[in-house]
């Protein structure tokens, strides 16, 4: 009790000296050692969910503030001051007075001694897919109601009092298996054991045809908890219907279940191509996946996936194990990954279907031209500050600016540690900065673009530029293998880069590209080339769409003597 009174007295003094503040206690009962991490304070004016689940880039977001903590000793407090980074209000003093539900989370960092000599403090993925609000081992407080007064000089007191639970591992079934391997390449890079995993959907009859080897269908996307869009039982007739805010549909959960069951019936039916389909788990210290390329900041994930994980899967589950018998598909992040891996490993894969890919040309880095624009947040003007948009809907209505999205990331974690979209692009594409963290493509507060970093991005990860630059060397290996699809009203303006890419691909010669680029009229993120169905349906059919398409198309791109029959029983 005496110790707690001393803590409160200290907090009161600090708060009085610096204006409005929150004092957060780390109890002895939650940790036996000092901790590093990002301390996040959230305030919400509704009770629909815990505040930690109400932070987003749209108009419905609630308030969040963040500070770094290092060597935080149990039994002591950390302060979140009026000048701490905030979103969407930038300071605590800007919050209107009223009743709020308050919650704090400590997103714990681990110390890494990387191969390049840099020592970094980063949040390791712990099986949740790099999400600060559900990461096992993170500390948090029980939400509590306060009456907030921005003019008061007395700090509010909050105590961390519980730990986020572990994530349950998925279980093997007759069709779906799971694999996890330690990567030698990534372990060497990070100086500690690093793992790659995958969820594997086996073809119908796999166990009854022990001598057959199968092609490999690689689905790229965000962190999968298990193999997605798969269900072996019909939709639950008693399921309480939900409402999809994105698609304005009631009962979308039941539609999803039925679509997943329909895929199971197709997969096990008589005419579906017999392939092994996999979804990769490669969450890391910066995001829910690695972008499947070699990166100066994240490590050699491209090599680790292509030369360690995939061969191991083919070895264990009887894959053909040749580049002609592998292909990739995916949307958004997965769309970029499918195209990037095809470009960087042209001999290892025999086709890619990239739907709504992340920016594949950096002259349209969503709405920013990294090579010509001076500022990412505002249009160039002598007298105006017109903000660039960050998110839109199919009618062009803006829900967030680019600066707002980046401000949220800065609150969640500095030094590219937010675990969100703009920071992972920076972590993957940038060189290592002087402090060991990713070099900033632009100043996170002002939006001023670093042209030296943009030049590095161009030569290493601008896929359109790289295809054009390297076409004399890789053209024969890539012709006919590239397919790109995007809605012309993509919510994140990803169609802009595809326009640039299409212009380049059409002009490629010796050989001609033979590439496919297609657009969905008024279609949002993530349209995938299906003109026959609305987006809310086609987004659930990636496997059945692209596996059947590839099985027919690949016949023109296989070596003489390739086995095209044994796996088509």
UniProtKB/TrEMBL annotation:
This is Esterase. It comes from the Bacteria. Keywords: Signal. Residues 1-19 form the signal peptide. It comes from Dyadobacter arcticus. The lineage of its organism: Bacteria, Pseudomonadati, Bacteroidota, Cytophagia, Cytophagales. PANTHER family: ENTEROCHELIN ESTERASE-RELATED, IRON(III) ENTEROBACTIN ESTERASE. InterPro entries: AB_hydrolase_fold, Mycobacterial_A85_antigen. SUPFAM superfamilies: alpha/beta-Hydrolases.
